[in-house]
Amino acid sequence: MTTTKTKETGSRSVAMLRRHLHPYLIVLLVLVSCCLDRIDSWTPDVLTKSYITYDNTIPAFFGNSTDYFKLLDQDDNSILIGARNALYNISLDRLIEHPSQRVMWTSSDAHRELCTLKGKTDQDCQNYIRVYARLGANKIMLCGTNAYKPLCRYYNLLPSNGSIAYDNNEMEALGRCPYNPLHNSTYVFTDGHLYSATVADFSGADPLIYREPQRTEQYDSKQLNQPAFVSAVEHNGYVLFFFREVAVEYMNCGKAIYSRVSRVCKNDKGGPHPLNDRWTSFLKARLNCSIPGEYPFYFDEIQSTTKTINGIYGSETNQIIYAIMTTPENAIGGSAVCAFAIQDILDAFEGPFKWQQSINSNWLQVPQNQVPEPRPGKCVDDSRTLPKASVNFVKMHTLMDSSVPSLHARPVFTRVSLLYRLSAITVDPQVKALDGKTYDVIFVGTNDGKVIKFVNIMSSDSTDEVKTVTISETQAFPIGTKVNEMTISKKSKKLIVISNGKIISLPLSNCNEHEFKSCRKCLELQDPYCAWDDENRECRNTDELHQSSRTVGRFFQRLDGLNINEICKKYDQRDQRQHKAEENDVYMRVDGSGSAEKDNPLETKNIVIIQGTVTSVGSVDIDNEISKSSIEGSVLTNKIGSHPYHHKTDTLVKENVSIASFTGSSA
């Protein structure tokens, strides 16, 4: 009787709870639906094809925990890494250092003592190599933070033994090198000149873009407003700088950070006296990386860029650059990769200017009749002869009215995560697939140690449409370790991943992994590096194929993902029949703790694993992914790859594991 009353009371309580929660559940479902619609518009690349983890056997180069590695240069065989009190030359093949080409450069005792007197720590008061310039065939220049007193030195390359010798010549690096190794600075060395973007004072309050003797205006927020410099590239007669800064045009509405690209002319000689040490060609424009719509969603903070890439996009040859853009630090974590055409950037600098008439006015387009001639900011033969009207105009109107649109009018990749943001990017440009089309294979690193690989499979056909495939996600570093930089070695077919204190080398592709041993699995990767070899029935890297055999019918690729089941049906069915025949010939034996014998040529036993005991409990047809598992000494292992959060179910070990059956019914 008591039990019956309890049940009735419980039923009434549940009914009342349902009535009270009903309206809230409806609201919750509506909100979830809206959020899913929004997230879907952010992430056209929802599914990742493969999750990969690596052990400690991969090639790696370690430093001290405070080395703050920085990639300075690269050739076919090695990379130059700036570090704490040292420059390392590291082979790309196995990440082994060439000790004879190491440069050791420590700050003097006097400089370190002065640094500590200014309140800096011992870690700060070291010399971190940040700038490398090849001045000639046998001469280089290095610049370091030098205990918060930046300095440059010259070195000679000795062809006889490949070593590097200091030539006892040095100079101050003010405006060339940062004071702090963590400062967001960049540079490019071109045509015999060093173009740098850094800070010129101890406190970091004087940012500048500099090429001796020209610089941006000092303490002028209209030119540079608390910038964080990201990268610099040269293009024909220009040098382009990419950075993020506090947006002056938004100041009347609050504080916001925008991504910028700025331009200076290589032949800029400064203005007429007394402006001979100021740029006459410095202009900047906003970079627009946004989700399109009636109210676009902007990714406003640029974090990293690739080098310029020459390729075919939408059946046209173009030069582009990829950039990582993120949401603000205190917003929901969103990251995107946008592509920008160099020509679109240059066109923005030929458009109208933006200005603010008074401090309380809105920022508006400058009327064309107020722009002096010759047009301010243009490259001229001798900028020292420009009229003062043009020089003063460009000093006060550095911001362009038009922003630079992204190539596809949308990101090529987006990722929403509360755990990490994208932090570094590199690209293997124009990888040729078996169909003759070319694709950019893009790798992005995160501030949580991941490396994500993806490709826009529509890139060669259209610049209006994006269809991104996320091929793999790799936990390259321990969780919490930021990926700072990445580069690709075409010769060794490796991806070099760099953090503050470690460098690792990863393969560009994983075509031969166990999980891709069928035609369907191989083609579903949609990886330009991988093709199914029907003759050997294996997934192979396309670099391994002879050029003469790439068009022969034995190799298959389907980057568009269409009709894969139909293509692979006959090949996979043949493989399944062969695997079944091989399995039927296997005699399964477990030493000491039990046995599973072959009772029927078409059957095998189910296995129960409980604290090391293996017992036969029934029979089931072998027709599932776990059928290839092997039993050795009470351990059953399934090495088929899956999401990293599922790894505990990927490897079934003998400790505290209970499995009734894989499929079918138990005994």
From TrEMBL:
Where located? Membrane
Q: Outline the extent of the Sema domain.
A: 44-508
Give me the Gene Ontology terms describing cellular component.
plasma membrane
Q: Which UniProt keywords apply?
A: Differentiation, Disulfide bond, Glycoprotein, Membrane, Neurogenesis, Signal
Task: Report if keyword Membrane is assigned.
Answer: yes
Q: Which GO terms describe its molecular function?
A: chemorepellent activity; semaphorin receptor binding
Q: Which Pfam families match?
A: PSI, Sema
GO biological-process terms attached to the record: axon guidance; positive regulation of cell migration; semaphorin-plexin signaling pathway
Q: Which InterPro entries match?
A: Plexin_repeat, PSI, SEM1A_sema_dom, Semap_dom, Semap_dom_sf, Semaphorin, WD40/YVTN_repeat-like_dom_sf
SUPFAM superfamilies in UniProt: Plexin repeat, Sema domain
Q: Where is the signal peptide?
A: 1-41
Q: What is this protein called?
A: Sema domain-containing protein
Q: Which organism is it from?
A: Aedes aegypti (Yellowfever mosquito)
